[in-house]
């Protein structure tokens, strides 16, 4: 049997998707990944075959920097970073306006390339990142069944009266102006209409016999796989989802890092893991306040700098482990708490390790994810732009006092790759 994984050229997307493929690999089956060249090393590290497929203008091999992107994409990234400094509504509005160009890049050409890859590989099963809209459009046009993996909070796929890009729930710390929210909602509706028109224009060229979509953002594959714990999903919302399976988490294996192992073993004192992911680590101003709060608490910390300028972080206490990149899964295993932007990998990996969180959401579905963590009692959410050092100190102290997250037992006992493997073999997937 051959499994084909289709992923954008972003490490944060490919890592969980590639991890899902390990269930097929370990069963002795063939795994082929269609993605761009920036993440070729990740594909190789899993022992998979790679077919070149560029699904978007940008790429991210692990830590993204504007100056390393192609012309035009670099300015778009700088614009996004600037919007996060203005606030939640401004960031969501910036992302909404950018969607026509960054989610459906040259869809007819890319769609035909996807169709050629599927034919050449001869896949028996296909897993596609939900955000690979051009790829999903191509498979829909070709009539090829596929599993659609939502790498984010479940609201990344709107259902009911939800509008893509407009979070249906917010953490308590965010109190945006009602008129600003109304304008954002109107913008997201307008973008959805325009995006659907673009989807239908491409569909009319790839498969003119198929009916047009009513809402392209609500389109999905034959089987939905949510890389998210079912226990954190609103039961009323879960009840109206299309055919689906919750994978819980897709936690990757990491190579041993001797420096990290030595640092963990050097002290019995609890430590806090801190990371804002591959994009939002650029917010050195927020990271500096988190470090100051940790310094006030007198606890150890392991901090993944990403693209942050270390010179902007102030005095870093002796005994802190600070590097551009750290093995997140390994450090979460023994962490007492974590501070995160609320990305899907960070949240699901922390839940699998049983680690309570301080969530500082900046964009997209991170707001809904932070609200879910807060509502479940597994952490505290704060607004990153306005949270003071004192508020961060109190939040970290409160999270350190929480018990281990109880989801960890089930998530470890039933790992995401096996759940995906079973779901694609169930009658639901046929």
From TrEMBL:
Pfam families: UDPGT
Keyword Glycosyltransferase among record annotations: yes
PROSITE patterns: UDPGT (PS00375)
Protein name, entry field: Glycosyltransferase
Organism taxonomic ancestry: Bacteria, Bacillati, Actinomycetota, Actinomycetes, Micrococcales
Domain of life of the organism encoding this protein: Bacteria
Stored PANTHER family: STEROL 3-BETA-GLUCOSYLTRANSFERASE, STEROL 3-BETA-GLUCOSYLTRANSFERASE UGT80A2
Family per record: Belongs to the UDP-glycosyltransferase family.
